[in-house]
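Subject: for your reference before the review

Hello V.,

The reviewers asked for a structural picture of the protein, and I figured it would be easier to keep everything in one thread rather than splitting it across files. Below is the amino acid sequence we used in the manuscript, unchanged from the supplementary table.
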Amino acid sequence: MNASRTNMSRRGVPQPSTTGRTGRRRTARRVAVVGGVAASAVVLLAGPALAHVGVQPVGEAAKGGYATVNFKVPNERDDASTVKLEVNFPAEHPLASVSPQAVPGWKIAVTKSKLDKPIEMHGQQITEAVSKVTWTATGDGVEPGYFQQFPLSIGQLPEDADQLVFKSLQTYDDKQVVRWIDAPTEGAEPESPAPVLTLTAAATDGHDAAAGAEAGAEQASKDSEGEHSENATASSDSGDGTARALGIAGIVVGAAGVAFGVLAGRRRTSSTGTPETPATPAS
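And here is what came back from the structure prediction:
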């Protein structure tokens, strides 16, 4: 009887189902896989955008002036080295003066092109401008995990532009060429953005600055001369005052000496008096 009741109770109590738990586990796994794939896609898409060639000024790049800029080249590959960089200059805003700084382990070539329309710089007509600068590695280049900076001194910067776009080509030792040539668009970053140099407000005109410096120097010279004159006058007045004080002191000392001599003579006369007449011996 007891065994029968036990069997009935076992059959009567519903057993927990494993189907629900298995389904939830499968769903969680699918979510994890999908999330991992999405995260990997985000990383893959964001990688090139973060590793593109860029340009930054040392200080500011003011309109109408000159600037030193650095082209920064990171290596976004883990199985190849960057061995060449070509930077193309904007034809719509030609730059007549471009001077590269020597970079150890790299050969530099500056290419100039004729201008369709001459430009004036410092009172001279310029008929050609730099169209491209190329750096070629003579050694290992930019190895995986490293970056390299390529400095340039450029000018005269345009006065009618807010930025300059430098389309660039990055070449690896396996012959792959990455073209960083996409101009910036408002609201989104291009897939292969070109280096963009932002220009700041124009600085004070150089001639005005020189005139101001000259005027300041002239005024400083006048102030210095006035100061020297005042110092000389003050020194002369001081010398005259000192001479007067010494003269008065000498007079006082001389008068005191005379007075002292008179008093001393009187004291000697009073102390000695008139010589006495010798007494006559008694007879």
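For the response letter, the relevant points are probably these. Residues 218 and 224 are 10 Å apart (CA to CA). The helical segments are 2-12, 19-50, 206-272.

Happy to draft the paragraph if you're swamped.

O.
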